[in-house]
Amino acid sequence: MKARAARRRTALVSLVRAFRDAAAALPDALVAIDDERRIRWFNTAAGRLLGLTWPDHLGHRVDEVVAIPGIREWIASGGAESLPDVTAPGDAEVHLGMRLIPYADDHALLLGRDISQVLRLEKVRRDFVANVSHELRTPLTVVHGYLDLIEPEQIPEYESILRELRNQSRRMTQIVEDLLTLSRLDAEDALPETRVAMGPLLRTLMRDAEGLSRGRHEITIEATSEHDLLGSPKDLYSAFSNLVSNAVRYTPVGGRIAIAWQTDTNGGRLAVRDTGHGISPQHLPRLTERFYRVSTSRSRETGGTGLGLSIVKHVLQLHGAHLEVHSEVGAGSTFACIFGAERLLPPEPLCEEA
Ligand code: ADP
In this structure, are strands 218-223 and 256-264 parallel, antiparallel, or unpaired? Predict the structure, then answer.
């Protein structure tokens, strides 16, 4: 009996050792912590990346010895959301994605994955798109400029070809401009902020919509708030006008379009509502992806680039805001930009005349 128990113990110990050796060899940082957040074990990568020394740091509270900003609050909150990008305390060249994985009796594994290579590739992709767009801009401007000099009706035998050339060069120019806008937004952490006067902005959006619609739709403004927004006027205009242009382009003749601005104590809501084609639910989660279109032909026919909603999403993100979409096929869609209360500015007092 004794001998069997000893054999079992030896087998168990070697199994535990094998597990530890395997975990120790992982390239990701791994720290086992107990219910008081004290370090019970960590692997070699955790020593290097998180700046821990074996065995000195065993028994220490992890949030006192791992120098990641905000780690204490993050662990205290249960760490349900991962920390997507932190600089490794043990190696400033390395970026880590941090996760907290709970296991038996309030214990947890702190996992730090080296995401430096992924970030590098992401940067290469971003730079590539920005460079290609930039390089295409000049030749396209030249082609577009020359085509604009020729009046198709003056050369009847080539009239339809010239019109098609013009349309396609305009489309390409718009795609390049949209890609450059996206590259710029991608590279920004924050945008310059000033008062965005909503009254004039709504009137401009209405004029844009009327210009695009050319009398084919009924367009209204529903502004129940006098508040302005704090943000980047140029970028917010670009986001809102993308929504307005979509509403016009995806609403058949005779449809209604409303541009609404309302605020309450929770924040502000700029919504563009239409009675257009609508979108079926399975497409909604993917609408803001680059080049995602519900119907490629409809998007092309109406001069779409497939980048508009992606620009909207980026601009809103940089304002701490988000997009909400409600849509029903055949009934219409509402695209609403939701802003937090900290973005609202009360109307400016009118200057008293002397
Ligand atoms: P596009 O340039 O193709 O319009 P967007 O990024 O602006 O690209 O929109 C993505 C897709 O979402 C569009 O191709 C279209 O299918 C759909 N969509 C956007 N706005 C509306 C709308 N108001 N009504 C119906 N479909 C829409």
Answer: parallel
pLDDT digits (tens, 9 = 90+) for 283-315: 999 999 999 999 888 888 888 899 999 999 999
Please provide the CATH number assigned to the domain covering 116-187.
1.10.287.130
Ligand 1 centroid–CA 216 distance in Å is 19
Report the candidate in 2, 315, 349, 85 with the shortest Cα–Cα distance to residue 178: 315
Residue 177: CB partners within 8 Å, gap ≥ 6?
A: 137
pLDDT at position 304: 87
Within 13 Å, how many C-alpha atoms sit on residue 124's CB side? 6
- What CATH homologous superfamily does 2-114 map to? PAS domain (3.30.450.20)
Give the residues across from 91 on adjacent strands. Answer: 88
Q: Using CB atoms within 10 Å of the CB of residue 69, give its burial: 0 to 12 exposed, 13 to 18 middle, 19+ buried.
A: exposed
Ligand 1 mean position to 294 CA, how many Å?
7
